[in-house]
Every structure is written in C-alpha cells, then in structure tokens.
Specification:
The complex is a heterodimer of chains A (304) and B (258).
Chain A: H1 5-9, H2 22-61, H3 65-68, H4 84-115, H5 120-133, H6 137-151, H7 158-182, H8 186-194, H9 199-227, H10 231-236, H11 255-264, H12 268-299
Helix pairs in contact in A: 2-12, 4-7, 4-9, 4-11, 5-7, 6-7, 7-9, 8-9, 9-12, 11-12
Chain B: E1 5-14, E2 17-27, E3 32-36, H1 43-50, E4 60-68, E5 71-72, H2 80-86, E6 87-90, H3 102-106, H4 108-112, H5 118-131, H6 135-138, H7 151-164, E7 169-173, H8 181-194, E8 199-203, H9 207-213, E9 216-221, E10 229-236, H10 237-242, H11 247-253
Parallel strand pairs in B: 2-10, 3-8, 3-9, 6-7, 7-8
Antiparallel strand pairs in B: 1-2, 1-4, 4-5, 9-10
Helix pairs in contact in B: 5-7, 7-8
Classes of the chains: A mainly alpha (304), B alpha/beta (258).
C-alpha cells in the first residue's frame, strides 16, 4: 500500500468541535438585528406618545389649582381651573364598578374551578364569559342605556357608567381568578383535605391565599383598563364642568370624558385642558399599575 | 390511639374503569403495612380509598367496606372530613402550604379546625416537629416559610403536619420516592418510631424499603393490561420476601418483572 505525505499529515480523527460556519454566523447576525429592530419599532410610538403627552400636558398640572379645582365657570379662552371634578368622577365610577364586579367575578371564578370543574354549567359559563370579554365597550354602553334609561326610565348618571364598566370588567375578573386558581396545584388541596379540613375552608385558607397575589394584580390591571374606557361615557352620562360627588344624580365628569369634551373647545385654553386631562389619566393608570406590582410582591408566595 | 383497619371486598372505579378488584386485607394496629407492586396495580388507589381521598377525583366510585376498629368509613352519613381527621396522609411529593410559615404548616390542621389557644399550638408544634426529627433543624426559623426547606425537610414537615392532628392511622403514599438516600433513611427511622403510636400503611416502589420498615407486606398486581388490579397476597414481611406462596410475588420481588 502506498502512503502519501498528505495522508500522514492528516490527523488520525477529525476534531469533535468545529468553528461556527460563516453561514450560521451570518444568520445569527441577521436574526439578532431583526429582533433588535422590531424592539425599536415597537418602542418608538410608545415613547413618542409619552413624550407628546408630557410636553403638552405637564404645564397644566404644575399648577396647584389643577388638583383642587374644577373647570367650573371657565370661558373657552380662560386658562387655569383644575381636573378635580373629573378625578372624582373617574375614581367613583371605577370604584363602584370594582365593588360590583370583583366579588361577583371572583365568586364565579371560584365556582368554575373549585366546584363546577367540567360540568355543563361551568363549560357554558366559561363560554359566555369568553364571549363577554370580546364585547365592544360601545355595545356595553348601549345595552345599559337600553336597560337603565329606556326600560327602567332612569336618568343618565355616573352609576349607569359604572354598570357598563361592570360588563367590561367582569369577564376580566372571572378570567384572572380562573387562571390563578387553576395553577394552584391539586396537591395543596389534597394536603388540606387529608388534614380533615372541609372544602370551603380549604378554598378560603389555602387556595385563595396561594393565588391572592395573581388575582389582585389581575383585578387592578383590569381596573386600570376600564378607567380609560370612553365609549360608554359618551352615551351614559352628561359632562359637567363642576364637581359632582353624586353617582346617581346629574352629569358627572371623568377623565376620558374631559379629554373628549375639551377637544371640542377649539381654543388654546381648550387644548391646554385636553392635554392636561390626558396626561392626568395616563399618570393615574400608571400609578395603579405600580400599586398592582407592589401588591403582587407583597402577597407573593415567599420561600425565604 | 392507634386503630386497626379491615378492608372488605373493596372495589374501586374511575368512571367506568375498574381500577381495583375485590381487595380484602387487615391492617394491624401499631404496625407498618407496606403495599408493593408494579406501577398501575392500584396500590395507591387502595391507600387513598382508606381515608376517602379516592372520591376527591371526579368520577371515582367505591364499593365495599373499610372498617376502622369495626366502624365502616363508607357507612351512609359518615362525614369524609371526619374520616380524614382520624386517618392522616403523607403524599409522594412534599406539599407544605406555600403561604404558611413552618409553624403554621405544622398546626394547619388544628388552626383550620378552629384551635386558637396559642400555648397549645406552640406545644403541639414542638412535639410534632420533634416527632418528625425536624425540631433541631428548624426551631430557630419557625416563622419562615415552609417552602424554603429542602425536599427531605419538607417531607418531614408534612409528616409533622399529619401527626399534629393526632390521627389513629397514618397513610404514606411513596413518601421517599422524591428524596435522596440520606433523607430516605431519616424518614425510615421516623417510621420505625412512629409505629409505636400509629398504625401505618405505606405504599412503596422500593422493595428494600418495604423489607426494612414493614411488619407485613401486601403485594398487588395487574393480571393483564386493562384489567383491574388485584391483591395477590399479604403476609408477614419476612415470609413474603423469603418464601412467598404465589409465583407472581416471587417473580416480582426477585426482579423478574415490574
């Protein structure tokens, strides 16, 4: 057998590890660039919105009157006044919405996961909740209008708004409760049963505390979402430039409604109010998201 | 305190699936009875039926009797909650309550039953943790979450929790299968101590463990795929492992199948 020098110089076996091929390197670069680009494209509009909001809306709220006064008595060209009336309205309307939808939604979620699992009633409820969660807010507003104002003959009011917000909030609460209860391992329920703890007490003392952090976070994020809804407000309550604490009587301002109304005042002062109210709404929602994060940390299951 | 269990003609079902057929056996007071057998033979199902945990699974059904010192736990009108207070259980996977401290985990059964006497709860915490050989390791951090303990410690915590309510019988469903040999040894030593006070039934996949800890051993088997599991034989552990009367038992413990 003839032996070439080339054969002798070739290593006895090929190395197990080879360098990255140029093709793979190039692909890696392209993919990394694409993803980075997607991130930038997604972030630009967001930052733009925030920047515009702060640039236009910051000056009104630096005035102390902004937080303590209403727009009552302001002429279209008057600067000054404050957003207090709208803050009161938004907070009252969402608070009452939460007061109704949280107990109801959490109970439905508990029923679906802890009691009704896979029963026909539970499946139907889940299906209905799914449909309801896709309900356009304008339709929720129309429905409450038809029920509250046309059928019952009651006046347009802040409470009617709360009711329409309940329609939008309820599916969120049910959904988040369901999801959070679902991820509580069955082993915990069994551990509790095996100690001779009745089912309801297992739910109240073991299952709910374990999922509390998630449920609370979900509820508060849902509230923040509902706070910015505008369509039902346009139908269900009149705008007032004065402070109105009464949910059941008279027109009542809220932040989204103020933004909408101020936009129609085509003066510089009107723009000033519009951007001020818009930034106030965004700040309020950010504050609530912050609270949600804090609460979720506070109630999170700890291991140390 | 410890009571005996008589299982008579027990048949267990999941929906239409017949999981276990015609089990009749006795569990003696203050002794350890081991259930062994291949996967799917129904030994865990039988164990869970003893304190009425089988029925927690939707669609499950029980026929036959389980007598605790002569009282049928499946008699009409018997509250499963009461049965479970009398017959405690330790699971395969340690499952301390994640929201509770070590101490609250131990006394969870009592606290949730309404016991508020702080002094009594403190006493029971110490006694149960000592009983589970865990006291020295955790006495300085009783208020820390139970989830922060190691796997073996968590399992001993679960044993302490199960014994804190002072049941008559303690059921253990593969309590060591997720543990390392040292933790396993700790739990086996614990079982040997616990049997002075409790009637213990343990399901295990580890035949050496059955041989080490149990006084009598029951061998369950699956005659064929799709058929219900059956009790093949039960006897003194020494006899089952040295001179079983059934061929299937001998094949299983000598490692020819399973």
């Amino acid at each position: 057998m003839r032996t070439d020098t080339a054969d002798i110089e070739r290593p006895a076996k090929t190395p197990a590890f080879q360098q990255l091929s140029p093709g793979r390197k190039a692909k890696n670069h392209i993919a990394t660039t694409l993803f980075a680009l997607a991130f930038v494209v997604a972030v630009i509009p967001l930052l733009w919105v925030l920047f515009t909001l702060v640039r236009r809306g910051l000056s009104p709220m630096l005035n102390a009157d902004w937080w303590t006064h209403s727009f009552y008595g302001l002429l279209p060209n008057d600067f000054g006044g404050g957003i207090y009336h709208a803050l009161v309205g938004t907070l009252e309307q969402t608070f009452v919405c939460a007061l109704i939808s949280v107990p109801l939604g959490v109970s439905v979620g508990i029923f679906l996961i802890e009691y009704g699992r896979n029963s026909r009633l539970a499946r139907t409820t889940t299906f209905m909740v799914d449909i309801l969660s896709g309900l356009p807010s304008i339709v929720a507003g129309l429905f409450i209008y038809a029920l509250w104002i046309t059928t019952f003959g009651l006046d347009r009011s802040g409470f009617a708004v709360s009711l329409s917000l309940v329609l939008l909030m309820l599916p969120v609460v049910v959904r988040v409760t369901e999801t959070m209860l679902m991820i509580v391992p069955d082993e915990l329920r069994e551990a509790s049963y095996a100690l001779g703890v009745p089912k309801w007490k297992t739910i109240v003392k073991v299952v709910l505390p374990t999922s509390l952090s998630g449920i609370l976070t979900g509820i508060i994020l849902g509230l923040a979402r509902v706070m910015g809804e505008t369509a039902p407000l346009l139908i269900l309550v009149g705008y007032s430039r004065a402070i109105n604490f009464n949910l059941f009587d008279g027109p009542m301002a809220s932040l989204p409604l103020t933004v909408y109304t101020a936009r129609k005042t085509s003066t510089e002062a009107g723009e000033y109010r519009m951007w001020g109210a818009a930034l106030t709404l965004v700040l309020l929602i950010m504050l609530i998201n912050l609270i949600a994060t804090l609460l979720s940390k506070l109630f999170a299951v700890k291991t140390k | 305190m410890a009571k005996r269990l008589d299982i008579e003609n027990l048949n267990l079902y999941y929906n239409k699936f017949h999981a276990v057929q015609d089990v009749t056996l006795q569990v003696h007071a203050r002794s350890v009875t081991a259930f062994i057998g291949p996967s799917g033979c129904g030994k865990s199902t039988v164990l869970r039926s003893l304190n009425r945990m089988h029925e927690v699974v939707p669609g499950s059904r029980v026929e036959g009797k389980v007598l605790l010192d002569g009282e049928n736990v499946y008699a009409p009108g018997v509250d499963p909650v009461q049965v479970r207070r009398t017959i405690g259980m330790v699971f395969q996977k340690a499952n301390p309550f994640p929201t509770m401290s070590i101490k609250d985990n131990v006394v969870a059964g009592l606290k949730l039953a309404g016991e508020k006497d702080k002094k009594k709860l403190d006493e029971i915490t110490e006694r149960s943790l000592r009983g589970a050989n865990l006291w020295e390791e955790v006495k300085d951090r009783l208020n820390k979450p139970g989830g922060g303990l190691s796997g073996g410690q968590q399992q001993r915590l679960c044993i302490a929790r199960a014994t804190a309510v002072q049941p008559d019988v303690l059921l253990m469903d593969e309590p060591c299968s997720a543990l390392d040999p040292i933790s396993t040894l700790a739990i086996e030593d614990l079982i040997a101590e616990l049997k002075k006070d409790y009637t213990i039934v343990i399901v295990t996949h580890n035949m050496q463990q059955a041989a080490r800890v149990s006084d009598q051993t029951a061998f369950f088997n699956l005659p064929a795929v799709g058929e219900p599991g059956q009790l093949v034989e039960i006897g003194e552990t020494g006899k089952i492992f040295s001179n079983p009367s059934q061929k299937a038992t001998e094949d299983y413990i000598s490692g020819r199948f399973g």
